[in-house]
Specification:
The protein is α+β, with helices and mostly antiparallel strands. The protein has a single domain, classed as PH-domain like (Roll). It is built from four helices and seven strands, in the order H-H-E-E-E-E-E-H-E-E-H. A seven-stranded antiparallel sheet has the order 4-3-2-1-7-6-5. A hairpin with an 8-residue loop joins strand 3 and strand 4. Helix 2 crosses helix 4. The chain is globular and about 55 Å long. The relative contact order is 0.18.
Length: 209
């Protein structure tokens, strides 16, 4: 979703929730199977930190002033744009995405493939350089933390120097399982980080129903 995600959009204030007719069912969009359970409606998840559309500043707005809130139309456009970005990420993940993995102890980098099942419930990483290496699979619902940047250095001190373009993912099962991904720039990092967080939230939404 490479893009530079510098704007953090806050969720709607209570009593001002806005809905859109553009909500997308992740599984049905990815697989085309109307009979399969969905991982959740992507349109109902919290809005993450994707860049807001460029808007012309008001003439009376001074440098340093707080940016005005998005208008209802801008919010709808941003929601639709976000859904398209996550849909594209989901399609790519089902097909398999080439990623760079980091070893938190040796700091060595390895080429692997990141994949998700067609229902977006399970993620798998598989080495592309060692065919004999077993694939590692995790249930998305077992994800207990997704973090990036300096937080990676806190969790894995040896990766501190590489943390600017890294994403860490912790799982509750198997116990203490942890993956670290490295990206070519912060834009690619934020794209992966935000889409994975949205898909994780969609699982919670579906299980809460």
């Amino acid at each position: 979703m490479a893009l530079a995600f510098m704007c953090c959009c806050a969720p709607e204030a209570p009593g001002h929730e806005e809905t859109t007719n553009q909500s997308v069912d992740a599984v049905r969009e990815v697989t085309g199977d109307l009979n399969q359970p969905a991982a959740g409606l992507l349109g109902t998840t919290a809005t993450p930190n994707f860049p807001a559309p460029v808007r012309t500043p008001r003439k009376d707005q001074k440098p340093g002033d707080k940016k005005p809130a998005l208008s209802p139309r801008e919010k709808e456009q941003e929601n639709a744009r976000l859904q398209e970005i996550v849909k594209e990420f989901s399609r790519r993940a089902v097909a398999g995405i080439a990623v760079q993995m980091l070893d938190p102890e040796t700091t060595e980098m390895s080429s692997e493939k990141f994949m998700m099942d067609k229902y977006l419930y399970t993620l798998t990483v598989k080495s592309e350089s060692d065919a004999a290496a077993p694939a590692r699979s995790f249930n998305l619902k077992d994800t207990c933390a997704i973090y990036k940047g300096s937080d990676v250095g806190v969790k894995a001190p040896k990766l501190a120097a590489m943390s600017a373009c890294a994403v860490g993912v912790d799982f509750s099962t198997p116990a203490d399982a942890r993956l670290f991904f490295n990206f070519k720039d912060s834009g690619e990092r934020d794209k992966f980080y935000t889409c994975l967080k949205i898909l994780r939230m969609s699982v919670d939404i579906n299980h809460a129903k």
